[in-house]
Amino acid sequence: MLGQLSIALQTLIESGAWDKDDELEVKIGGMRISGLSQTDSKNPKWSPNYGDTQYNSDSFIVIQNNTKRTKI
Asked: What pTM was estimated for this model as a whole?
């Protein structure tokens, strides 16, 4: 999996679309964070703790090139 990511980044660099010194930001999508405070008597199976992060099975990675990003 890491090899495929490396190949994709190398392709972007070799094509001239990106430079090796560009500032990248990596984000994970397809996740959820519990935003509800629960009582102490909650059922942990159905009520995750406040702030718990859970990743879905179809999560994805976004690589944002901040150097090439258009500034408004």
From this structure: 0.65
pLDDT digits (tens, 9 = 90+) for 23-72: 999 999 998 887 666 666 766 666 677 778 889 999 999 999 999 887 76
Q: Map out the domains of the chain as residue ranges.
A: 2-65
What does the buried/exposed string (b/e) look like for 36-64 if buried means 16 or more CB atoms within 10 Å of the residue's CB? eeeeeeeeeeeebeeeeeeeeeeeeeeee
For 53, the token pair is 């992060």
Instruction: Give the residue from 59, 68, 72 showing the smallest Cα distance to 27.
Output: 59
The C-alpha atoms of residue 49 and residue 38 are separated, in whole angstroms, by: 7
Give me the pLDDT at residue 65, please: 94
Rounded-to-integer distance, Cα 15 and Cα 24, Å: 17
